[in-house]
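new request in #modeling-help
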Amino acid sequence: MKKRRINGYLLCGLIITGVLLLAALVGTFYTPFDPNAMNGAEKFQAPSFVHLFGTDNFGRDIFSRVVKGSGTTLAIALATVAIGAVVGTLVGAVTGYFGGVADDALMRLNDALTAFPSILLALLVISIVGPGNKYNVVLALGIVFIPSFARVTRTAFAGLRDVNYITSARLMGAKNGRILLVHMLPNTVRVLLPAITIGFNNAVLAEASMSFLGIGVTPPDASLGYLLSEAQDKLSRAPWYALCTGAVIALLVFGVGLIGEGLQKMDREVA
Amino acid sequence: MKKKILAMILVLGMLTALLAGCGGSRETPEMRAEANAITIGIAQDLDSLDPHVAVAAGTKEVMFNVFEGLVKPTSDGNLDPAVASDYSVEDGGLTYVFTLRQGVKFHNGKTVEMQDVLYSVRRCAGLLPEGGDALIPALSVIADVQGEGDKLTITLSEPNLEFLAYMTLAILPADYDQQDTAPVGTGPFKFVSRKAQDSVVLERFEDYWGTPAKLDKVTFKIIEEDSGLVRGLQSGALDLVSHMTSTQISQLNKDAFHVEEGSMNLVQALYLNNSAPPFDNVLVRQALCYAIDKREIINMAFDGYGIPLGTSMFPSFGKYYDDSLTDYYPHDVAKAKDLLAQAGYPDGFEMTITVPSNYQPHVDTAQVIVEQLKEAGITATIVPVEWDSWLSDVYGKSEFQSTITGLTSDNMTARKLLERFNTQAGNNFTKYDSAEYDALFARAISAADDAEQTAIYRQMERQLTENAANVYIQDMADLVVVRNGVDGLIFYPLYVLDVSTLYWDK
């Protein structure tokens, strides 16, 4: 096996994402200001050294809110991708490996789910489980994300099903569960990892749009999408609010996108 | 080469057409001032132009200038004679006799006759020969309407101190069937035209019986999008817009406009579900009142605009309003904690605040309240709901712990604001339950004279405050942005915009 070299994409991506993750992590126990503390004397302050991103209409420090909000958004995105990836892989494994009626049924259901625009589907789930709660947002988005993972992994598992070493394992009497978990799963990582990075980005954007539309995270909890919707009607009074929040979303998506790109590039070099 | 030239000519042609298009509709405030006209931005289209049928507050706000009743509300909350020149109450409040004013003209040039007045009152009371329901349900109290000479006699089936407030109903011509497309009334302005989703144009009525309007022409421009109103003011397309938020106003050029502050005439409060724990305990409710600082809410979320309130009544109701209740519970966190400890919640408790999410002012208020309650050890969570589910679950079924909303009155009667806290009331969504209050209410509505009734209503307000029925916050400000040069705006204790007093100060 050739020595794997970390490429520029991956490095940049890791640095950007790392910094944002660290900030969000620190933000869970420390922010320069209380993100919800109001201060009537400091409404609509432009960015300065005290308030890096300025303040909003209640005099709240936008930097602290963005840091806290990134935490919420990241947590939601991670949980969403986790649900999508785990359930999706499970579905993909079962359908890809066993085939048959289960495959047909689940994959047609999959098709049906993919036929809806994802936001519409999330809206549907939210309207059933009720809005205003971040766990419900995770649930809604998680369900929406299952089909894409199922599709990707199904192809991988189906491709591996009749490969020699799997057939040998089967002949040696390995149980189906062991074959799927020990022999096949590690070999699907190649397709799973990029799918996770893309899924993560989509989750960040989906959470942002849902909160922006007012069906995601609710005040005083702040996610990046909710902050954007707050910033919207103050656009000409406090443009820094929307700009800073938007920039963080863009940076986050960009960073994770670079990681995905880097991983694929590395994969091609190895292969 | 030929093609390029052709393309250039086409592009040029398109540009000219575009520019010409823009230039044509460009009307500056200076041109309007010259023409003695103004353009007012409104946020929603009108529902019906027939005043007896229209229900939307936004429609009544505009058409107030076109129609008048036998009496007319004034800016200080009284009722002045209008189409009637005089009235008297007889038979212990069972009979109202109105004397018609001589020579009042409709916008179509005809003089107002007794038959027109009879038609209008009977139509609203459901007493027309062809039958039909009362268009105004409260007028089903009318037993009979008769006209003789210039005297109109209305007989009631039971006395009603607040009956006169309903005689503001529009007087319409009897033999006219196009009210819903080309309305005709007796007001200071006559209707000229309406383009659905676009505009309504009024012009001064030269034969008006009273003080004539100062402007020649008023255009109400319908702009349903918030930021469109701001843009319209900035670009010079609009001269006046009501009901703006302080954030919208902060985006306007301060040299071109001034802001006039009236009030919305509503009671904004953190309404509590008095029937469910922990708010069935008066100590907890009082603790909330001490913990919440209404003045800070007004400063923080409303830039200082708004009148703090202490009970279910607001200042424009004049004699009914008791200002001494406003600071019954001064902001005092220590006292709040003390009361909570007495009530058995030494470490505070968790609660939810349900807010209609389409009303940003209420959402903003909730955010400030959450922070204030935190200081008293109470953890509040905001639950935003859509307007429809708020109406059905919170207002309809009382499925809530606390909620923020503004309650209004559509006429000048205190009953409208206070009736809802009596246990018999169908709209008692806060489930306020006090035998003492119920007894007071029963006495108030059957009171024989006005002074006694007023005293009882004031007692009821005090009772609400002392029992901390709800955490009263404010009468929200109605911020009206007016272009410099336009003057004469007056506010009413009702949801109307009187344009007859507006003028260009040249």
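bot summary: Chain A has one domain: 68-270.
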